[in-house]
Amino acid sequence: MTLMSGASAEPIEVKIPGTVQSLRMIPLPGGKAAMSQTEVTWDVYDVFAYKLDLTQEQQTAGVEASSRPSKPYGAPDRGFGHKGYPAIGIHSNAAVAFCTWLSAKTGKKFRLPTEAEWVAAAGEQPEDLKAAAWYRDTADDKTHPVGKLKANAFGLHDMLGNAAEWVLAEDGTYWVRGGHFDSHRTRISVSFREPFNPNWQRDDAQIPKSKWWLSNGEMVGFRVVMDLS
C-alpha cells in the first residue's frame, strides 16, 4: 500500500453504539482504509474488556464471556495513567478479538493494520524525535496520554514510541512496530520490528498462558484500521 504525503480526507468519527466512546479515524490516501489517529486508549478498551456495553443482567448471565478478556493481572495500566492513555499489556489475540467486537458493535470492518500499511502510514523518520515520540530519554519510564506530541504527515500521533503496536505480517504472524516508552532511541524507528517475546508473559502462572494479557508486556498496545470499501 503506497501513501502519498499528507492526509487525503477529513477524519471520520466512529461512535461506539451504547457508549459515550468513539474512535477518530484518519482516511489513508487511496480511499480504501482509515487508521485510528492514536493508539487505542483505555477509555475505549475498558468498554470491551469489562463489558460496559452490556446490561447488568447480561453480565451476570455471562453473555459473551468467552469472547471478552479474563480478569487482568493487578492494575492493567501499571499505575502509569488510565484516562486518555494507551491500553497496554494487550496480547495480539486480545487485539484481534477487540477488532471483532468493534466490527460487530459498529457494523464496520475493523482489524489490525498489516505491516505494510503500518510502515506506509508511519511515513518518514521524524527529524525531531523528541517532538514526535515518547521513548527512554523522554518518557520517565511510563506511557503518556495519546496525541500530545506532534502528528506525522498523515495526522497520526504516536506511531513511534509510547506503546509498541501490533501489526499483521505478510506470513500471518503478529509483530510489534514503532518501539515504546522504554526503548532506546535507536529502536524508535519506522524500520524497527519485534516478534512476540515469551518474556512478555514471564510472570503468568497460568497453563496455558493467557491469550488476553501480557503480564510483563506493559509496553505493548495497538491501533486499528477500518476498511472503507
Shape annotation: globular
- By DSSP (H or I, 4+ residues per run), the number of helices equals 5
**What is the level 1 CATH name?**
Alpha Beta
Describe the strand arrangement of the main beta sheet, using strand numbers: 1-2-3-9-4
Query: What name does the CATH topology carry?
Result: paralog of FGE (formylglycine-generating enzyme)
**Alpha-beta classification:** alpha+beta
Low-confidence stretches: 1-7
**Approximately what portion of the residues adopt beta-strand conformation?**
5-15%
Descriptive report:
With 229 residues, the chain is of the alpha+beta class. It has one domain (12-227): paralog of FGE (formylglycine-generating enzyme) (Alpha-Beta Complex), CATH 3.90.1580.10. The protein has helices spanning 42-49, 56-60, 92-106, 115-122, 129-132; strands at residues 12-15, 22-27, 33-36, 110-111, 164-168, 174-177, 193-195, 220-221, 225-227. The chain has a 5-stranded antiparallel β-sheet with strand order 1-2-3-9-4. Strand 2 (22-27) and strand 3 form a beta hairpin. The chain starts with 11 loop residues before the first strand and ends with a strand. The model is unreliable at 1-7 (pLDDT under 50).
